[in-house]
């Protein structure tokens, strides 16, 4: 299958059935105990493993493909300006992105060659560690760096660009615009998927409600919107309900394996494989999801259960009712007015100011 045909097949699959993505990457890599030498003395920089230990990275992709998933996300969550900048290697964005996509592509093609079933690669574009809304980094610099990463992912064989775990709407816009610029430069046509992270508080990290995210991001021409990380599926339900009612584009959901429980051995994610599969099946039936998967704490066992549960399901047709409006950072305001008159005024203090009272009289 040619690259263009493969990418076209992904679009068709997302439009006609439930596509299953993979689960957690970082914990799977850390479980293999890479050495400081593997990290090139940059301990914790998982993206460096794309060039030093591609065998470790590929083994994670293979474990998920063996569980039956349709696509895997590249090991490039931190291959961005601010995350790599903390290791003083921001110039390696394109290199590590390309290497990560190439490893995933090789694993996907190997499994496809065995049984003839197409597998896809989602190019992961993470949020980084700096928030432009708070002035940590400027928008233009961030956008251009995301473009470098997107070009690397596409050159390595990614079939879609996944802007994920976004916490700041301005950072999300920078990533989407960077992705769009990369597609234009390379003359490529792949889906751009945005997955925002809504905290247990009910908003994104900077206080944005899901309605604000939809109003701000959908007009950018994204192909899909959804949720990932921060919480388990139970906490995502109401936000998915809003998206199902109002989003014009298809929906995705990749929850954690529940809310983490801190133990003496570190964070433990309590949600089992059956519970995750139950939740994802319910979401598909209730909200018409097209792409499901897992995030922190999920394993190949979790995704195997999800595959078994949603295989053969067709997302029910949605009847979204888009609500035109404008969004601030925090909330969306519909362009809607009641039939009563609209009064706009300012409360004044006639008792506290003698001059104002006399002027008013």
Describe the structure.
The chain is 42% helix and 13% strand. The protein is an alpha/beta fold and 361 residues long. The chain has a single domain (3-360), classed as Homocysteine-binding-like domain (TIM Barrel), CATH 3.20.20. The radius of gyration is 22 Å and the shape is globular. The termini are far apart. Strand 3 (120-125), helix 7 and strand 4 form a beta-alpha-beta unit.
The CATH homologous superfamily is termed: Homocysteine-binding-like domain
Which CATH top level class fits?
Alpha Beta
Reading the helices and strands in chain order gives HEHHHEHHEHEHEHEHEEEHEHEEH
What is the tally of beta strands? Answer: 12
Query: What amount of the residues lies in strands?
Result: 5-15%
Q: What is the architecture at the second tier of CATH?
A: Alpha-Beta Barrel
**Oligomeric state of this protein:** single chain
Alpha plus pi helix count: 13
Shape: globular
Short description:
By secondary structure, the chain is of the alpha/beta class.
Please describe the structure with a list of short key phrases separated by commas or semicolons.
two-stranded antiparallel sheet; 13 helices; single chain; alpha/beta; 361 residues; 13% strand; 42% helix
């Amino acid at each position: 299958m040619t690259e263009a045909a493969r990418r076209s097949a992904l679009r068709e699959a997302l439009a006609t059935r439930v596509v299953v993505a993979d689960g957690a990457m970082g914990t799977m890599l850390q479980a293999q105990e890479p050495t400081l030498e593997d990290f090139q003395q940059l301990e914790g920089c998982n993206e460096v493993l794309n060039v030093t230990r591609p065998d470790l990275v590929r083994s994670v992709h293979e474990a998920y493909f063996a569980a039956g998933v349709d696509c895997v996300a590249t090991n490039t969550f931190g291959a961005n300006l601010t995350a790599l900048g903390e290791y003083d290697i921001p110039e390696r964005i394109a290199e590590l992105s390309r290497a990560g996509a190439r490893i995933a592509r090789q694993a996907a093609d190997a499994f496809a060659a065995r049984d003839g079933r197409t597998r896809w690669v989602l190019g992961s574009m993470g949020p980084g560690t700096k928030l432009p809304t708070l002035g940590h980094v400027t928008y233009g610099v961030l956008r251009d760096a995301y473009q470098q990463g997107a070009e690397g992912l596409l050159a390595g064989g990614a079939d879609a660009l996944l802007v994920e775990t976004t916490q700041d709407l301005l950072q999300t816009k920078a990533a989407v615009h960077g992705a769009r610029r990369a597609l234009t430069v390379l003359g490529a046509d792949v889906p751009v998927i945005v997955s925002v992270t809504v905290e247990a508080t009910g908003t994104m990290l900077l206080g944005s409600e899901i309605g604000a995210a939809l109003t701000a991001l959908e007009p950018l021409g994204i192909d899909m919107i959804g949720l990932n990380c921060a919480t388990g599926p139970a906490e995502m339900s109401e936000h998915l309900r809003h998206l199902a009612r109002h989003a014009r584009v298809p929906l995705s959901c990749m929850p954690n394996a529940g809310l983490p429980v801190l133990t003496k051995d570190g964070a433990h994610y309590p949600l089992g494989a059956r519970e995750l599969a139950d939740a994802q099946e319910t979401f598909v039936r209730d909200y018409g999801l097209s792409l499901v998967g897992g995030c922190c704490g999920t394993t190949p066992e979790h995704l195997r259960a999800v595959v078994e549960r949603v295989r053969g399901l067709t997302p029910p047709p949605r009847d979204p009712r888009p609500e035109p409006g404008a969004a601030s950072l925090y909330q969306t305001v519909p362009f809607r007015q009641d039939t009563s008159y609209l009064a706009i005024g300012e409360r004044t203090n006639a008792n506290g100011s003698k001059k104002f009272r006399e002027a008013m009289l």
